[in-house]
Here is the input.
Amino acid sequence: MSNDLIISNMQTNLPVSKPEYKTMLSNIQAKMPAVTRDTSNFHKSHSQFMQVTLDITAITPIRSIKHTLAEIDKTRAALQEAYISSRKKEVELKKKEAELVECVDLLDREMIEIEILELHGQLEGTQNAVNGALRKMNFCVNQHKQLLESIGRTEITEEDYEREESRYHIMTCMKQALSAARSRNGMIDEGNLIYLFDLGINAAQAQAEMFAYLSLENDMISKNQAPTHEMTMKWLSACADKWADDPSNFAAMRGFSVLDESSLTNKLIEEK
Here is the structure.
């Protein structure tokens, strides 16, 4: 059952004292197939563009893979829930159709017909959501494969993820610090100064790096040259290279180890 049939039912049951509404419904019914066709392009929360630019904002490849896998898992769970809900409604619909065959009371029959109409509408809505989720999931699994290829890997392990964490947090911290510094005369904000401290990175050293990078950009602009985003990413990567050992050194100073290989899933599987 489609939206067209529901609109047709509405047109039949509207009071005759409102002819202007019947005209509106006739117009809607005539144009609804095109609307339904074009609406089928959507039924998902975000575009592919938003998925890779605004939803998954991790700055390192393995973190990007982790977030992509999380989106896949969330979408898979939603699809499973939608499938179960749809199956339940299909069974309810069969029961209602069986009740309608046996029912003799006119008012009871009319009520069952309305309930059947409602179930058809709910099933159509569920199917639209499933279609959108399937497109999103297909996009995400393709992105997962592409991300692995971009780093020359066929899979990642828990150890890969743990070892990249230092770079991820340093680059994320300095990315945020740079964004704040642009509106604070080059000064890193308090929140990211705390972040730097927790990573074991001297804030004065980070501030010096910030001034140097912003000075480089300003010098380029004064020469009518355009700083690029790629240049910023290279600077962030250089910061991660420079301070890569600082977080683990700070953790060791406090009595911790940032990586316990005996507690990694992949390691345990290999040993078993």
